[in-house]
Amino acid sequence: xxxxxxxxxxxxxxxxxxxxxxxxxxxxxxxxxxxxxxxxxxxxxxxxxxxxxxxxxxxxxxxxxxxxxxxxxxxxxxxxxxxxxxxxxxxxxxxxxxxxxxxxxxxxxxxxxxxxxxxxxxxxxxxxxxxxxxxxxxxxxxxxxxxxxxxxxxxxxxxxxxxxxxxxxxxxxxxxxxxxxxxxxxxxxxxxxxxxxxxxxxxxxxxxxxxxxxxxxxxxxxxxxxxxxxxxxxxxxxxxxxxxxxxxxx
Length: 250
What we know:
By secondary structure, the protein is an alpha+beta fold. The chain folds into three domains: 4-60, no CATH class; 102-166, wza like fold (2-Layer Sandwich); 171-249, Outer membrane lipoprotein wza fold like (Roll). 31% of the residues lie in helices and 20% in strands. The radius of gyration is 37 Å and the shape is flat.
């Protein structure tokens, strides 16, 4: 890194060169010394300002400019099923646990008993000391109360919290001419209109008048345009989705 004094020294040499050239080319022979000083000062003023502007900020402060470091980005955010930004959080008082859901069992001050567990296809989980415990069909709050009661045989007044890490038991799919085709966990009640919003809306040339909801052998219809106009038939078509439903946009 070039020091400030080195740059100033170079500037001084440049200034003396400019003075010499200016005296030879521009000054009138026999001009008074004071006139020559003023003329030279005017000419040098712009050069001095230009030189100062070229000095790096780090050099002006007497410090070397540190080399640019690597660009820092936010760490990638891991989004588990059921935690889409537009989705509502899981309500421990109303959500019903199902097979293949992933739970977190937290027993206060008992690290050996606290762990994530998978709900098996038979609807049960396995816990230390307790063995198999029924989880399917219970809310997280109700399951926590049952586990607390069971652990009371081994622990004095246990404090148990059950949370849902991932919802795999209930979901719906949106396909066709939408901006984000995929499967979404059915954590809270979702209408057809909301499902289209989760999928990023329609692509160009999508048929917004004939959205299909496939439910087993049923083919249900939803007219998106009429719904925006608040037509009663379309409002009635904006049904709540059920586990396994597929919304198809042509």
